[in-house]
Structure formats: structure tokens, C-alpha cells
């Protein structure tokens, strides 16, 4: 595998709306990110991905873009963005933006022109179909519930939106659309951007001609994924985009890619892949149900281990995957992957190390380095996220009581990760002097940057140690490029694996509160990471405390 500039880095995702507010309007902004760059540098971050901050009406929190060449005034100005790129560069850091090109906003100029003249040039920028009384063009269900078809204002046509109705899908079959996308990508890369995280990209290719599928719920509609399973030829679009944009700039690109067939993985992130890397969502999608969130299955420690090892095995050595515990679309990882009632500093550190030491590029989501947790919901009126509101309705329709429905969706709500970053134990967690756009998690008094920076035993300092190990000259070759082989894979509530390069490391986590004994395969030469002050060993016999995690250097290359 050819080595690239980004492979030994550590990435961090910022959700700008909730990161840090400098003007007191309750919304995080670009000057706030600039102000906190030194904090991120102190943590050890190299690459920063910003969730969308383009001009947008915010029907889906900025993932509905009305101008790809402008910054939304909520976040600041283009001058602020230029300053952020420049300040990051001074610190040897790279800024990534979100590339959202499956759809735009219905307030984008292109869509307005399509409404004015649906049979003209811009009508072909979208999927438009003639309206038939009592019949939809297809029976697909949007990701946010309801039909993917909406009336095109002022016309006798309907347009396709696989997400929110204010997010009309762009017609990638039209070369003019693709040209506009490439022009925009290159404009940003020429500005000095390090690259992009690519949103929902698998959706750009539709199975043509558009047609119905077997309904899977009482609404007579079917999950949009049925269509995606049948769609072929996306590689032509993605390869063209790579060659016209990312490749000439040696830019970094990370794909949000679901539904990829195993045999297609090398094409996506291999030697000449469409993207530099893509996220591993194996753990995130585990237990999902076609019926809705209310019917999803909770993940166990053994499930989590299996999901991680499956993803690593698929990857082989042909490419790099990006490993996550959480992001802006998922609940907090410590509340999801640690068994209920066991969330504590030790278990949070264990989860951090087990994920961080996997082969691939680690992504930290804002607040993850503090061990931020899900927020308690007392009423559906506290929910902002459109996806959660839709799933609440699905749960009620399935016969759950309002209390049961709230409990079911609260576990998965995207609002969990979107609550403001917890900087201090002061008012509004130090996020804003105004009223926060989304309520602050009440546990900010004990979980915050200020307190954790002072405490050498904090989750923050543990992440710092993991990052330092990844970057250390002595161990970098093994941690970044070494192979991964599971160890004692069948052992219940134990997740352990080798990282082998010029050194042999063993990562071992006791994924339960009860103690557990193992026998090491070779003598321990050095303890590199430990979330407890001690190691209880007798020769090669090791007694692990509850949720203890260790990264050990072994004496021989076994």
C-alpha cells in the first residue's frame, strides 16, 4: 500500500453550531473554532472536519445547502473561513468541509430556476416527473419518513428527495450537474482546504428507470435502500470526481458510505480508490430494524467486538478505514456501546483504547475526548432532530405508549451528539453567554474541558496518551501501519487483538465490570497504555480489573 500524508494523522469532527459561540447568539461560529485551535492542537489533532457551515435554511441542520460558495451568517463570513484555514495551516493542521452533493436546498438558485421553467436547463438538474392523480412516480420512503416525491411548486410535476422535502436530489446523470460539482470542489481546494468528508454519496446513483418495490410497512412504501441495492455504475461518477478534483490537489477525502458490497471495497479505498478512506459503520448499524428505531436491538460487548473485527477483516491491507465511536448522526458512543449502568471513566477509557488502536484513521467527535454522554429526555417537546421526531411517530403508530416511544427514540436521537460542547462548569457549560440553540447536557458540571485538563486521570488525558502513542517515533510504524489479528476472539466480554509491525503490541480490554483472567502469549516487555494505576500479573498470567484496558509491548514477534 502506497503511504499517504494523512495516514499517520488524527482527525476530529466539529459540529460548528454546538462547538463554541463567540457572539452570544447561542450558536457556535467560525471565530469560536479559531479560538479553540490551540486546544485541539494540545489534544493532538491534525485534521479537522467541519459539519456544514454553508449558507442554508437549516431544514436539516445545514445539510440543505442554498449556496455552495458562501458561509452562512450564523457561523460568520468567508473572511472567517479564510482565517480559519490560515490559522490551521500555521499549526500544521488541515481543514475539511462537508461535501453535500446528493442534494441541494429547495432555496438554491438551481431549484428556483427549475420551478420557473421545469422543461428548461435547470429542470434537468433534478429528478422531475409528471404528476398523476392518486399515484406517486415510485413508492420509495424517504430517510426522514413519508414519500420521496413532493409537488414542484407552481407546476404539474413532482420532484424526488430521498431526504427532507427541502433537499431535492441532484440528477448526477446530467453531465452539467457534475461539472458544477467539480467546479465547486476545486474552488474550495484552491482556497487551501485539505479535503472533504463526503456526505450520503451512495445515493447519487439511482436504479433507472425508476420503479416501485415491495412495500415493507403499512404506509405502502418501501425503504429507499431497496433501490440502492439495485443501482449500478456509481463508480463512473466517483472515479470521474476523484480524477477531476481530489487527485490533482492530493486532497484527503473520507466517504460516508453505506451499502457497499465487499468486492467493491478496493475500488472505493484501494490503491486508486475513489476516496482516501471511508468510515466504518459496522457497529453503528448493528441491530437496526426495518420497522424503526423502536424495534432495534441493543449491542452487546461481544457484538461490538465482532463488528470491529469483521470490518478490519474486510479491509485486509489494501486500504485504510476511518474508525469512529460516534458522530453528529449517532448517539454518544459511551452511552451506546457500554452496557447500561456501567458508564464510568474506566469503561469510557476502555472503549477509547479499543477503538483508537484499531488499524485505520481515528476520528474523534467533539466531546468524545471528554467522555460526553447522551442527554436525558423528559418530553418529545425537547427534541429538535427531524429524524427523531419521525421515529417517535413511527413508534406511536406501532402501538407504543408516548413514554415507551420517547424512551425508544431517546437512545438513538441525533440530538445526543449535538448538545453544546462542555467547556467549563459555568453557565451554559461555557459554550455561550446567550441562550444555547439546543439545551446543554446537565452533567456539564462534572464533564467539561476545564476540569479534565486539570485532572491527569481524566478521559481527556487518556485520549492524549493514545494520540501520543500513535505518533511516537518508536511505535508509530506498528500502530499506524501494522497488521491487526484478533486474540482470544471467542472469549466472552473480552476484546483483544495484536498490532504487529516492527514491534508486537497486544491490546486487551475486559469488557465487563467483573474481573477476568487471561494468559499472555508471551512475556510483557512494557505497559504502554493502562486505564488503572496497576497491573495485576503473575508471570504471564494477567488478572484484569473491571473494564481495564491495556496496550502491552510483548517480548517476541509471535
Write down the Rg. 24 Å
- Average of the residue pLDDT scores: 96
Q: Give the percentage of residues in beta strands.
A: 15-25%
Provide the structure class.
alpha/beta
Unreliable spans are none
Helix content: 25-40%
Total helical segments: 18
End-to-end separation: 23 Å
In spatial order, strands of the major sheet run: 1-2-5-10-12-13-14-15
The rough form would be described as globular
For the sheet with most strands, the description reads:
8 strands, parallel, barrel
Q: Give the tally of β-strands.
A: 23
How is this structure best described in words?
- Helix content is 29%, strand content 18%.
- The protein has 558 residues and is of the alpha/beta class.
- It has an 8-stranded parallel barrel with strand order 1-2-5-10-12-13-14-15.
- It is globular and about 80 Å long.
- Strand 21 and strand 22 form a beta hairpin.
- Helix 5 runs parallel beside helix 7, helix 12 runs parallel beside helix 17 and helix 13 packs across helix 14.
- The protein is built from 18 helices and 23 strands.
Amino acid at each position: 500500500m502506497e503511504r499517504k500524508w494523512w495516514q499517520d494523522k488524527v482527525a476530529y469532527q466539529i459540529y460548528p453550531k454546538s462547538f463554541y459561540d463567540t457572539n452570544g447568539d447561542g450558536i457556535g461560529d467560525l471565530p469560536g473554532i479559531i479560538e479553540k485551535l490551540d486546544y485541539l492542537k494540545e489534544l493532538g489533532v491534525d485534521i479537522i472536519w467541519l459539519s456544514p457551515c454553508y449558507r442554508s435554511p437549516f431544514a436539516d441542520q445545514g445539510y440543505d445547502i442554498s449556496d455552495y460558495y458562501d458561509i452562512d451568517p450564523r457561523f460568520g463570513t468567508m473572511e472567517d473561513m479564510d482565517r480559519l484555514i490560515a490559522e490551521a495551516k500555521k499549526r500544521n493542521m488541515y481543514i475539511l468541509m462537508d461535501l453535500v452533493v446528493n442534494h441541494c436546498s429547495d432555496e438554491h438558485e438551481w431549484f428556483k430556476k427549475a420551478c420557473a421553467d421545469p422543461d428548461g436547463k435547470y429542470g434537468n438538474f433534478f429528478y422531475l416527473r409528471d404528476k398523476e392523480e392518486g399515484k406517486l412516480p415510485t413508492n420509495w420512503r424517504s430517510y426522514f419518513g413519508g414519500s420521496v416525491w413532493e409537488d414542484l411548486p407552481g407546476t404539474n410535476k413532482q420532484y424526488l428527495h430521498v431526504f427532507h422535502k427541502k433537499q431535492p436530489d441532484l440528477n448526477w446523470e446530467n453531465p452539467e450537474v457534475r461539472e458544477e460539482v467539480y467546479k465547486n470542489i476545486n474552488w474550495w481546494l484552491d482556497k487551501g482546504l485539505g479535503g472533504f468528508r463526503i456526505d450520503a454519496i451512495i445515493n447519487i446513483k439511482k436504479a433507472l428507470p425508476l420503479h416501485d418495490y415491495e412495500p415493507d410497512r403499512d404506509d405502502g412504501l418501501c425503504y429507499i435502500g431497496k433501490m440502492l441495492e439495485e443501482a449500478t455504475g456509481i463508480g463512473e461518477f466517483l472515479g470521474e470526481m476523484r480524477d477531476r478534483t481530489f487527485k490533482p490537489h492530493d486532497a484527503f477525502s473520507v466517504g460516508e458510505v453505506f451499502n457497499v458490497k465487499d468486492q467493491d471495497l478496493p475500488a472505493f479505498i484501494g490503491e486508486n480508490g475513489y476516496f482516501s478512506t471511508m468510515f466504518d459503520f459496522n457497529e453503528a448499524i448493528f441491530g437496526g430494524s426495518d420497522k424503526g428505531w423502536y424495534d432495534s436491538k441493543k449491542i452487546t460487548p461481544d457484538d461490538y467486538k465482532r463488528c470491529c473485527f469483521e470490518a478490519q477483516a474486510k479491509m485486509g491491507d489494501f486500504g485504510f478505514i476511518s474508525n469512529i465511536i460516534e458522530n453528529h448522526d449517532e448517539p454518544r458512543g459511551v452511552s451506546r456501546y457500554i452496557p447500561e449502568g456501567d458508564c464510568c471513566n474506566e469503561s469510557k477509557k476502555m472503549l477509547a483504547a479499543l477503538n483508537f488502536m484499531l488499524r485505520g484513521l481515528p476520528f474523534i467527535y467533539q466531546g468524545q475526548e471528554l467522555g460526553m454522554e447522551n442527554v436525558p429526555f423528559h418530553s418529545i417537546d425537547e427534541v429538535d432532530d427531524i429524524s427523531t421526531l419521525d421515529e417517535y411517530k413511527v413508534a406511536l403508530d406501532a402501538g407504543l405508549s408516548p413514554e415507551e416511544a420517547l424512551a425508544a427514540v431517546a437512545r438513538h436521537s441525533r440530538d445526543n451528539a449535538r448538545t453544546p460542547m462542555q467547556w467549563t462548569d459555568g453557565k451554559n457549560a461555557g459554550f455561550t453567554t446567550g441562550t444555547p440553540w439546543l439545551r446543554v447536557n446537565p452533567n456539564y458540571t462534572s464533564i467539561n474541558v476545564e476540569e479534565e485538563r486539570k485532572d491527569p486521570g481524566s478521559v481527556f488525558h487518556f485520549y492524549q496518551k493514545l494520540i501520543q502513542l500513535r505518533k511516537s517515533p518508536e511505535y508509530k510504524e506498528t500502530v499506524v501501519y501494522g497488521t491487526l489479528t484478533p486474540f482470544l476472539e471467542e472469549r466472552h466480554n473480552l476484546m483483544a487483538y495484536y498490532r504487529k509491525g516492527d514491534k508486537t503490541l497486544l491490546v486487551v480490554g475486559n469488557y465487563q465490570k467483573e474481573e477476568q483472567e487471561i494468559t499472555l502469549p508471551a512475556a510483557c516487555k512494557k505497559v504502554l497504555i493502562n486505564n488503572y494505576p496497576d497491573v495485576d500479573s503473575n508471570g504471564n498470567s494477567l488478572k484484569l480489573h473491571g473494564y481495564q484496558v491495556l496496550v502491552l509491548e510483548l517480548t517476541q514477534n509471535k
